[in-house]
C-alpha cells in the first residue's frame, strides 16, 4: 500500500469517528501531512479522500490554490513593475496576495452548501511558499469553517509544529494532524 493510500485510510478512519459541533475554527482544520516528493501521487489519488468523506455521509468540495499566485499577479495593475523588479513583491505585495488567497478560500466556505456535513479539501498550499504563509491564510479563514477544512500539507509536522516543504522554521497550529510516520523514524 502506498503512502498516499495509507494517508487516505487514516483520513477515512478519522472521518468515521466524527467530531463535536462546538469545535473552534482551528480545531476544524485537518492537516493531511505528506512528503513533498509525493505531490504527484497525492494529486492522482485525491479522489480517495473525497470518497472517504462521502463513505461517512460528508460532502466534499475541492479547492486548488496552485495557480492563485499567477492569477493574482497577472491581474495586478502593477504586474509589469513586479516583472521588471521582482524584489518589489516583498514590499507589501505578500499581504495583498495572502488576502487574495484567503478570499478564494472564504468564497468556498461561505457557500450555502458549506455546512457542518461538508469537508473542503484544500490543495496547492505549496504554491504559497515564499509569498504567503499557510498559518496566516488559515488564521484569516478558520472563523468561517462550518464543517472541516482538510489542508493537504507537503512538509513535516511534529508536536503541533508544521514545516512547509521542510524548508523553514515551523509554526504552531491547533489542527488535527493526519500523517504516517516511516517505520523507525524518531526525530
Keywords:
187 residues, 7-stranded mixed sheet, alpha/beta
Model description:
- This protein is an alpha/beta fold.
- It has one domain (3-14, 28-178).
- Helices cover 37% and strands 20% of the residues.
- It has 7 helices and 7 strands.
- It has helices at 3-17, 39-44, 46-55, 68-75, 79-84, 93-109, 134-141, and strands at residues 29-34, 59-64, 118-123, 148-158, 161-164, 171-172, 176-178.
- Strands 1, 2, 3, 4, 5, 6 and 7 form a 7-stranded mixed sheet that branches.
- Helix 6 crosses helix 7.
**DSSP strand count:** 7
The oligomeric status of these chains comes to: single chain
Would you tell me the overall average pLDDT? 85
| Number of separate helices | 7
How much beta, percentage-wise?
15-25%
Query: What is the string of SSEs from the N terminus onward?
Result: HEHHEHHHEHEEEE
Radius of gyration: 17 Å
Distance between the termini: 24 Å
Number of structurally distinct domains: 1
Percent range of helical residues: 25-40%
Molecular shape: globular
Low-confidence regions: 183-187
What is the SS-derived class? alpha/beta
Biggest sheet character: 7 strands, mixed
Amino acid at each position: 500500500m502506498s503512502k498516499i493510500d495509507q494517508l487516505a485510510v487514516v483520513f477515512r478512519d478519522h472521518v468515521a469517528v466524527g467530531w463535536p459541533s462546538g469545535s473552534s475554527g482551528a480545531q476544524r482544520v485537518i492537516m493531511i501531512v505528506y512528503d513533498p516528493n509525493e505531490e504527484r501521487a497525492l494529486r492522482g489519488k485525491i479522489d480517495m479522500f473525497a470518497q472517504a468523506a462521502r463513505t461517512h455521509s460528508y460532502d466534499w468540495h475541492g479547492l486548488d490554490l496552485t495557480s492563485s499566485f499567477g492569477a493574482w499577479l497577472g491581474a495586478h495593475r502593477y504586474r509589469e513593475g513586479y516583472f521588471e523588479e521582482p524584489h518589489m513583491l516583498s514590499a507589501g505585495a505578500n499581504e495583498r496576495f495572502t488576502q487574495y488567497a484567503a478570499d478564494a478560500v472564504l468564497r468556498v466556505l461561505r457557500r450555502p452548501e458549506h455546512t457542518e456535513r461538508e469537508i473542503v479539501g484544500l490543495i496547492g498550499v505549496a504554491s504559497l511558499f515564499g509569498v504567503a504563509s499557510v498559518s496566516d491564510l488559515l488564521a484569516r479563514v478558520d472563523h468561517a469553517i462550518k464543517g472541516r477544512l482538510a489542508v493537504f500539507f507537503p512538509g513535516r509536522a511534529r508536536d503541533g509544529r508544521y514545516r512547509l516543504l521542510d524548508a523553514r522554521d515551523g509554526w504552531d497550529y491547533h489542527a488535527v494532524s493526519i500523517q504516517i510516520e516511516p517505520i523507525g523514524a524518531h526525530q
